[in-house]
Amino acid sequence: MEVTDIVTSKPDRMVDARSVFGIDVDLKVPAFSERDDHVPEIDEVYRFNTEVTLAILAGFMCNRRVMVQGLHGTGKSSHIEQVAARLNWPCVRVNLDGHISRLDLVGKDAIVVRGDHQVTEFQEGIVPWALQRPVALIFDEYDAGRPDVMFVIQRILETDGKFTLLDQNRVIHPHPCFRLFATTNTVGLGNLNGLYHGTQTLNHAQIDRWNVVATLNYLSREDERAIVLARAPELDDAAGRALVESMVSVAELTRKGFAAGDLSTLMSPRTVINWAENIRIFRDPGLAFCLTFLNKCDEAERPVVAEYFQRAFGKELASFESGNVLTLATP
């Protein structure tokens, strides 16, 4: 679609939530027939969480401001993107790291060449650009944003929130199909457990403006095993499935250890997938485990992690043969 088409386009079909997202609910969701460059690619093996999917669909259907909260590696941003991908809804992610400034969001004057002359021209930031289009704007790491950035976002958290460009003396009205989402680790409560350095305590008045807050916890054992096998299909045989079962057991033990205060680091589903993919490279589950997770742990905690490995695999971490480690997988 051309840019002018994007600005004026609206959803032109309805999709069935049960058949498209695999959730047990009778729901018709508006969607676009055509894809553009901003629509995420569909991940065919992605597994949707029912509660979180319903929250995200409410955002798309009813223009709710939706925040998805959860520990790292649970797939919060991916969940929103994969819903958008199946609706052909353009989607833009912005990571609110410490380098994102108010000018990046609002816009700023820039020198451009028009004909043979240099002129100063206002260039819109991501917020006014997205606000005028049928775009799902996702603010990643929302609780890491700087205070001046957060107050810019607060202007558009109202469903019909207009955005004023003071430098341009212009008021931007949101496109009817503009949608706003955020992902966060702490729901604005700050870095309570030391796991998420750099997060901020958010203004409660701003948190209150989010219409829906969904929590995405770690997957069930069965779902996590299925996703790992989908990402590493070469393990999908009897021996491989037994291996993945033990890998997921290690991950669960690290999460329980973290909850009990025995560990300061835990294995996310993303880490388990990385472990499986690294086994493909190094051909050794023990070495791949060390390179994927163990070396990230505090040195004083590594014996505890090695014990988890021994309990899940029934053998010591050092007992894995690594004679064929150098026989790397070909790309």
TrEMBL record:
- Superkingdom is Bacteria
Ranges for domain Cobaltochelatase subunit CobS N-terminal come to 8-39
Q: Write the Enzyme Commission number(s) for this entry.
A: 6.6.1.2
Q: Which InterPro entries match?
A: ATPase_dyneun-rel_AAA, CbbQ/NirQ/NorQ/GpvN, CobS_N_dom, P-loop_NTPase
Q: Tell me, what is one Gene Ontology molecular-function annotation carried by this entry?
A: ATP binding
Q: Which Pfam families match?
A: AAA_5 (PF07728), CobS_N (PF12556)
Q: Which UniProt keywords apply?
A: Ligase
Q: Tell me yes or no: is Transcription among this UniProt entry's keywords.
A: no
Q: Which residues form the ATPase dynein-related AAA domain?
A: 66-192
Q: Look at the named UniProt entry and state the broad enzyme category this protein falls under.
A: ligase
Annotated protein name in UniProt: Aerobic cobaltochelatase cobS subunit (Hydrogenobyrinic acid a,c-diamide cobaltochelatase cobS subunit)
Q: Which organism is it from?
A: Paraburkholderia piptadeniae
